[in-house]
Amino acid sequence: MKKRLMIFLILMAVLPLAAQEFDLPQGKWWEDPRLSERIGLDPEQQQEIRDLVYAGARRMIDLKAGVDRAGLDLAEVVNGSEFDPNEVRAAYAVFQTARQKLENERFEMLLAVRQVLTNDQWQKLQELKQRMKQMRGQQRRPGQRPQGERPQGGGF
């Protein structure tokens, strides 16, 4: 049982790192005329990606609300006057399940978008994404946080 738990914990730590490599540029990149032209997106692909992202975003809104509710419930149990570790564990399990559902939906949306792209388009998109990331890193001053990144904070 301990061995299974260790394997599960390792997978939970490694899978998000692997998923980071399977990512897309931020924003509505498929609607950027220069980017679309550079990777060779045709109008049908743009529409299909637009539809996939819209449907995925609608589902993720509901899932995010579930994460927020579970987080609120977890905070309530942790901060309650009668502290019960079993209740906290149960609330944490619900919270983790809600987060996993949200991440699964995001991943499925990424898979669906990836299926719309040809391998050549995917490679070009990854190269452009890497160049943009490098350019953003060069524009930052030492000690400056990346755009959109928030300082790390504790608590629930």
Q: Can you offer a commentary on this structure?
A:
The protein has 156 residues and is mostly helical. It contains 5 helices and no strands. It has helices spanning 2-21, 33-39, 43-79, 85-116, 119-139. The chain starts with a helix and ends in a 17-residue tail after the last helix.
Question: What order do the helices and strands come in, and which of them pair?
Answer:
Layout: H1 2-21, H2 33-39, H3 43-79, H4 85-116, H5 119-139
Category by helix and strand content: mainly alpha
**Order of SSEs, N→C?**
HHHHH
User: Which regions contain 5 or more consecutive residues with pLDDT less than 50?
Assistant: 14-20, 152-156
Major sheet summary line: none
Using the alpha-carbon principal axes, give the shape. elongated
N-end to C-end Cα span: 29 Å
Helix content: over 70%
The total of helices stands at 5
Q: What integer is the average pLDDT?
A: 82
In short, what is this structure?
Helices cover 75% and strands 0% of the residues. The chain is built from five helices and no strands.
Keywords:
mainly alpha, elongated, 156 residues
